[in-house]
Amino acid sequence: MAQAPLCPACHKTRLSRYNHDPLCAPCMRAARTVPPLGQGAPAWLWDSPPMRDALARVDLPAVVAVFRAAAGLSQHQLADIIGWAQSSLSLFESGQRQTLYDVRALLQFADAVDMPREALLPLVLGRTDAALPEAWLAGASLAAGGVLEETGVEVDRRGFGGLAAGAVAAAMLPEMTVPSRVTPSHVGYLKTCVESLGSRDQVVGGGVLLRQALRQWQRARRMLDESDYAEAVGRDLLGVTGNLAVCAGWLAFDAASVPLARRMYSEALFLAGSAGDPVLSAHVLEKSSMLSSHVARAGAGTGPAREGLRLADQAGEAARHEPLPRLQALIALRRASAASLLGDKPAFRSAIATARRELDRAAGTEEPRWIRFVDESEIASQEAAGHQNLGDPATASLFHRQSLDAPDVSRRNRACGQAQLAAALAGCGDVPAAVSEGMDVLPALSGGVTSIRTLNYLRPVRIAAGKSAAEEFCVRFDAIERQLSA
């Protein structure tokens, strides 16, 4: 009997003939892991330590296998996407063909899966930590400013870094390619991209992912406009393009790029209507409500808060027949946020109670992955923010601590929650405690969490620290602000 083949990534573990995964179990997990922080920001959506290792040693069969593992694609699906026969792909992965060692074929593969050329740097330089120099990124940001002006998106200085990171795709990278005919494999791949962007956002935040999300959305949008597809595929393509727009809008928001977030939500709402998808419509409307409340919280007055309340009501209307308790809970939380900004304590408390009732109904129900973050910790976090809006930072700090007690809070969300707790403590006048909590947030922001929104939550602490001579916090905060803006 023929011996089972070795894992193409580690070349150590033999693959079980009963397991059809392209890699061994440890390498499968590693292929879905963001690169260690010391290796720089993720170069693309499917960046991982095994991917960089395979590129650096010019092991292209392993590159394909690692990509399939990360993206969750079968050989049939990937062959369909890149325009090969499945038998040809199978022979290449097993080392019996050398097709991708032709640079033209390699670039064709990269373009088909929207792998940016910069992600090939480990292959070119033979180093797993190869990345673009800072001077290139600075030039890209300058070029991005022109792109943003052309699209009519206004930029403020504090949000420019994250916004420029997104626009740089159009300014600096090669023209993306789209297939002449879109198949279910292409749509399935785009859906996996949405899920991967969401999961990686929980680790590294929106700044470093915004460009990639915008590229994926632009590519899907061009497929809608330029490619051929069957009617059923077209409906699915409309939906996934709308979800990519929502994802890009959220990442723009986390990168403190409110104008871009608003534009992406507008695009998503149009696509949701075209697809006739009430869940997507409700999803867009609740995110738009959140954005309006954020603008109101930043000092824009009651107008945006009232808009946030109207948008939350529209989300509830869109989802009224949908059996998704967590979505109903999330919409209630958006109502609570807007009500607290309007000073309506009874409406705030009622909305929070509704969110908890809906969460109780969610037990045992199967809901989409994107809504599963709505749990008691999320409700506590939103309740804390509401008390802060109502001028009660002491109660806000208690609920922030409660939300942070959950054991499975993601890295980005923990940093964000701690920053809000620090701001609440500063609002109570307890500057030493605020600075202490804030100091615990700074390592995450300097070590890979590219969430300018989180940094902005710490700004009241920076102001208070400056008045109390907490010099170390001020110096580190300012250095991180320069880093994230660059």
Sum this structure up briefly.
The chain has 486 residues and is mostly helical.
Provide the descriptors you would attach to this structure in a database record.
single chain, 486 residues, mainly alpha, 434 Repressor (Amino-terminal Domain), globular
Describe this structure in words.
This protein has 486 residues and is an all-alpha fold. The chain has four domains: 25-132, lambda repressor-like DNA-binding domains (434 Repressor (Amino-terminal Domain)); 133-270, no CATH class; 277-367; 395-486, no CATH class. The protein contains 24 helices and no strands. Helix 9 packs across helix 11, helix 12 (231-254) runs antiparallel to helix 13 (258-275) and helix 20 (411-427) packs across helix 23 (459-467).
- Which consecutive residue ranges, at least 5 long each, have pLDDT under 50? 135-174
Secondary-structure element order, N to C: HHHHHHHHHHHHHHHHHHHHHHHH
Proportion of strand residues: under 5%
Measured on Cα atoms, how large is the radius of gyration? Answer: 23 Å
User: Which descriptor suits the 3D outline?
Assistant: globular
Sheet of most strands: none
Mean pLDDT: 88
Secondary structure layout plus pairing:
Blueprint: H1 25-31, H2 49-56, H3 60-71, H4 75-82, H5 86-93, H6 103-112, H7 121-125, H8 134-151, H9 160-172, H10 184-204, H11 206-226, H12 231-254, H13 258-275, H14 278-300, H15 302-318, H16 325-341, H17 345-361, H18 376-389, H19 393-404, H20 411-427, H21 431-446, H22 452-457, H23 459-467, H24 471-485
